[in-house]
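Figure 2 data, in text form.
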Amino acid sequence: PAGASPRLPAHLYAHAARRAGPQDPSTGEPTVRADGVTRGDTCHVDVVDRWGNIISATPSGGWLQSSPTIPELGFPLGSRLQMCWLEEGLASTLTPGRRPRTTLSPTLVLRDGEPVLACGTPGGDQQDQWQLLFLLRHLVGGQELQEAIDAPAWHTTSLPASFYPREVEPGVLVVEDRLDPDVLAALGARGHTVRRSDPWSLGRLCAVARDPRNGVLSAAANPRGAQGYATGR
């Protein structure tokens, strides 16, 4: 089985990135529409086979128009150097050999050294946050893959964004308004600025797993935006 999100052939990435609609700052990527007209530039795919080989990948053109293909090399330059700062003296100051932080977070989960789960999501700085929710629900809470993906999502925008202009919104918590009203009220009482998002709007997760005890394969994909799929053969 494999989970993939969204469905977009590689040769169309640059075209879609140019045509992508206005970005929603609360999601960290171009807004996903159910009719598929607006597409993002990053996707995620997980694959597992019967022998337990697992792949987790988050391909991201990330503004491909600013990362042209070099004819002599045959591939485009990476675009993640934009996460470096031009200000001197910082941990991410643009310096030869420097490796800035990156939002791309394809994830493999190991049990006793053996891979058992792959997951990931597009979403800029929200990738790690959305994945943490999923992993806690599945690994700690015992929810099934699809159940953990479908559960209400949230994230914070309190840290400086990785991308220019590196905006920061201290204390802001972006939540799907499917969360219990009492929970939302309690968060506000604790000082969070709760920003309600549409009920199915945050997260683009997909995941695959293999149970090493019996070899059973499983997969789940995100219903948000109707652009994620789980398939098997």
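Caption note: The chain has one domain: 2-152+203-231.
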